[in-house]
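Request: Give me one sample?
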Amino acid sequence: FTAEKPGDKFAMTLTTPDGKTQPFNFDGDKFVPPSDLSSVAGLDIFETTSETVHKETIFSRIMFGMRGDQDVAIKRALSPDGLKQLVWEAKVLSQLEHDHIINALGRTNCGEGLVLPRATATLADKIENVVDEDEAKRLLKQLALALSHVHEQEFAHRDIKPDNILINGSGNVLLADFGICLADSEACPNR
């Protein structure tokens, strides 16, 4: 731990064994915890088992796991900024119910993991192979419907790319990864 007292606030930093630092904030002598997914209304607690790492970014790690007999993906925050993004993403998803937008199934019991349906592929995987014209039109129409809904709800996704366009078990598009989207009414963390 390292500590500083800038002004009337006391800040402490924890350095993990891998050399990463995480802030722990105090206001006077009161600990100010980072927000977590327990603050997002409507997210039930999901217990998952058999988690394996699928993908990691600077802010989050995607794990695959099981909830009973259901395959799920768990998006876990890797930093305080990642946790802010995850909370923001959960709040946005709670306002974007649509057939072609991924939905949050719940949260992990620690409040630092968002449980999502597990996709079978991404658009990036799909376009590595030859996609016939009718299939391409069908997928693009679904993506356009999803984006239209996002914009009607006054959000801007800001990270449209093949890796964020998931394909579910039925072969349909699910737009995902709303961590850096913007809304007219609120500022997104980590712009």
In short: Helices lie at 80-93, 123-127, 133-152. The chain has three helices and 14 strands. The first strand starts at residue 2 and ends at 4.
